[in-house]
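Sequence, structure tokens reproduced for reference:
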Amino acid sequence: MSQEPKFSDQLEGWVGNDQPKTVGGLVEFFKEKSFAVLFVVLLAIPALPLPTGGVTHVFEVIAMVLALELIVGRRQVWLPQRWCRRELPDGFEKQAAVLARRIRWVERHSRARLGFLLSRRVSGVVFGLLVLGLTATAFLAPPFTGLDTLPSLGVVLISLGILLEDALLALIGVVVGAAGVLLVVVLGRAAVHEAGKLF
């Protein structure tokens, strides 16, 4: 029986094909895995320390809509056609190569642990709530501060945990994301306090 290709190989295969690199193309390629895959790809962009020209907010909005779909129990991705036609940013292929290498490292060190906890219906709702909260935090983080990195990375790790059926990896993602939320709140409050002294 042939083994299913690893996610990193599938991602590289999709990036390397000659089809347009759109959100809709990603959904069509990965089908039933599309929610977790989209969260990995969309939130990896703000999670990587690379200039994005403000495009991250667009992808964070898309991720929040997808999270709401999970919360209400949808099993298949639905997005407006305009969003489906949205191309991933210039230089995405290069970023995807970096992402695939990092995912490959995670795949080597990950193994299926308590995967049954991640396949229950209620886990989809919890997954959606976590993604919504962390993505909203990344979206609201002050621009050009890099504070959106940890919440975004938390979503990426949780989503990889779902894809690899590794509950421990998903839990690590929750911890990383929570640390990011705490950082945004603490530093955001400090920034507001300092700004208040100026007026």
Summary: The chain has a mean pLDDT of 81. The chain has nine helices and no strands. The longest helix spans residues 167-197. Residues 7-197 form one domain.
